[in-house]
Sequence to fold (460 residues):
Amino acid sequence: MASQVVVGVDFGSSRIKAAAYDAAGEMVALEARETPVVRGAAGDDFPVLDLLAAAHDAVAALRAGPVAAVGLTSMGETGTVVTPDGLAPLDFPAWYDDRGADVATALEDRFGATHLRDLTARHFRTTSTVTKLAHAHASRGCVPPGAFVGLCGALAFQLTGEVWQEAGLATTSGVYDLLERRYLSDAWVAAGLGHVTLAPVRPPGFGAPADGELARSLGLSPGARVVIAGHDHPVAAVGSGVRVGEVFDSMGTGEAIIAALPTDPPLTRAQLVAHLDRDTDLTFELWPSTGAPLAVWERMRPGLAMRTFLDGADLDRQALDDGAGPPSATPDLTAADLGALQEGRSAVGPRDAHAWGDLMDAYVLLANEGEALARAVSGAAGATVLTGGGLRSRRWREAKLALGPRAIEVSTVPEAATRGCAAVAGASIGWWSGAEEMPGRTRVPVRSSREMDAAVGATS
Fold:
């Protein structure tokens, strides 16, 4: 009989991935499916039931052995409602547009923008569940009564019949008090969502036993544990082997800079407010394995900017990468140009290889600002650990080496997010003492292009 495995499932904006790991921490199977998206004049929508079906397909295709536990991670805000008839077939507005801005403005007028910011650690914003879901209900009337669950909670419900949420993902609702660990029910109701309840938040590593035909069809062992690991970027940090005292840089569609804070002494409200006052793009979440606070700086959406750039370019990504000149500390692109590209608007100037290189350089220099802030807030003095799909770009790697942090390590763990949620799931069933102790993690210090290329090649 085949040995048992733990499986990690990652709901991403571009792809949905499932990976199986053995007790030695080795990835033994990987499957990926494109994330279904409905393109419309008003913006992109994620059809939740289609996303779940894609995840089912990916897990079923693994065929790596009996599944002892499943860990789940996702992009955060997307989800649907559990009704008496099951999951509602909701098309959820994508997090990366401004739909729901009117909801945010109305709630800020009523409760105070600063008050909401300080309680939610700046997670009350247009990208949050409360604004997107309220917009969908007000504009389409499509949100039925029931309990809201994110993508992870929806799949967990399908596999277990239970409804719950994890605290890091709860912060992305925009109505979760980070320090008090409670929902701001009055703001949720005021958004027009009084007919929808919010799933109860459980401790890190909480899981429920799988049951039913779907679980069996996906290869889950009887009673296999299903765990909601958390928000994708922090979960990927865990999967990359990042610890307190280090900085995590996830180079992808949305490039997040993350640094966990020490747990002793605990973060106070006054300290949280003071940190939030330092930068408008600084938020705080919770470390997936322990629930400790962590700083997240997320001004950057390089994947969106690159997509806009490529839409107006005559050359493909590889040709632009190959033709770009050496990194420059003074790129022509401005912060306004980056903002325009991230929003899908064209920046001024050509779309040639030189401009492509400038785009890489501008994002590296911007990431440096976020890293300095994350270190100041957390006290982190260790290495910067790089991961993410952006490492596949030779030109972006060169810019990181030439313009980026002094001490860089590349995580050679392929699919850090799936590994992170598998680590949390494995720890929950006693395969290892903690998620960070999952064997098999490797990180390589890099100081040259040759070392960087070798480290990135090891992740393939």
The CA atoms of residues 236 and 417 lie 4 Å apart. The chain has a mean pLDDT of 94. The domain at 5-232 is CATH 3.30.420.40 (Nucleotidyltransferase; domain 5).
